[in-house]
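Blinded run. Sample ID left blank on purpose so nobody reads anything into the name before looking at the predicted structure. Input follows.
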Amino acid sequence: MRTKLTIASLARSRYVTTHSHNCQQPTLPLHFNSLSNYDVSSTNKILHDLVKYGSLTSARHLFDEMPKRDVVTWNIMISGYSHNGFPRKSLHLYNKMVSNGIIENSSTFSSILTISANAGLFKQGVEIHSRVVVLGCSMNLYIASSLVNMYIKMGFIDVALKLFYDLPKRNLPVWNLVLCGICELGRLSEFLRLYNDMKMENVEPSGVTFCYLIHGCCKERLVDKGRQLHSHVIKTGWLGSNIFLANVLVDFYSACGILVDANKAFECIPPQDVISWNSMVSVYAGNDLLHEAVRVLEEMRLWDKHPSAMSFVALLNLSSRRKEMLFGKQIHNFVIKVGIDYGSVLIQSALIDMYGKNDDIQSSIDVFQCSHERSLECCNSMMTSLLHLGFLQDVFELFSWMACENIVFDEVSLSSTIKALSLYSSPSLDNCCLLHCCAIKSGFDSDSMVLCSLIDAYSRSGQIRFSQQIFEALPSPNIFGYTSIINAYAQKGMGYECLAVFEEMIQRGLKPDKVTFLCILLGCNHSGLVETGK
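Blinded prediction complete.
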């Protein structure tokens, strides 16, 4: 009589071979018809090993030959397909499992709902939810957690919260899951309600919970609430043991403009953590504090830490804003020394922009031409640099080149090209209409930046009525929309129309900037409304 089927016995048999990956990896199927005392659990272990080592073909062959399969067998294959990047095969196998009359367990539902959510297969996920309800599994904590996660990813936060609050018991991982989703979706009211409910139920936050809570305060600039959470973090002892939490505090205080406290939070972090160094470089650079950013950069070098691509981008952007050409070149040299200048699209784009803002268009062109990948970001930076320095014809040529190279433009590319057209002394109406058609076809006909450029271009081409139509079609004009139409009226000497739009703007509670006032004064001057202008 044969012995019971085990991994050890199979490893010695002629039915299985192994490959060298520092471990034994079964790869060939078994001839079950020749085996007595078939044990499904032992075969499941072999199936699990095959899936674990990525041998999906062998795993599926074994699965198909098994004379008997239980729910664990199906779960292994469903998860295996998902973990190896085949979510649709997981769903297909799940449907086959149901049609074969196999009743799902909590692991099945949790796994397949997570697969549906991560793959964006929401229709299938909702259908699975219906089956969960039919089988009476809605109150299972693990299944409900997966449902909450799926509806959050769908953006149906109200459905997710109802499922969450319907649970008879909520553990910390479920709270963390919902808090994370709320933070990502930016739903402030639900975020605060969840935090209060959490305290009412005496659920003690973990370090991960505090990360989500403080990140939510960061996004909404809730300074007082963030400080309270910081105090709670200190009292519970999480600050010294969770570097991620310390970095979130740095981000929170810097986002709220409280740089002193951001620096204090940074000082509490061990110097070995490169993330915090890069955070502080970005914080100081983002707040135009050149000397402080350089100081942190020098300290990083002493600790043999290299700035990240995002830190370099922040420093290059600082050089652009402050027109610090020498500093920008030094950062460029540092980037080359580190060896990531042409390997990062973001750095390439920032370099092009930096040289352009510092009026060195040739260096911008050199960086652009040396780029391994002339991405949309690089094209946009090149285009705005050309526009900034008045190379209008080159803007049009670059836009045409992008079309020839199948680089799909975005609102920045399109608005820059339209802006270049409007700066011609007498832009062609045909060209205005052509670019307007591009905006409509590409779906950017509701983008405020594109529409403001079109208002300007049409007015300069002599078609003020088209400018009016575009402005009137804006659902909720912002300061830039109002300024664009005021400028259009001003250029045509329509002072009274300028004043009427200006009054409407004030009534809407929008605060005019200096450009708006200059356009108003220009309109009054061209219309002879000297006293009104005064």
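Unblinding after everyone has recorded impressions. Residues 170-269 form one domain.
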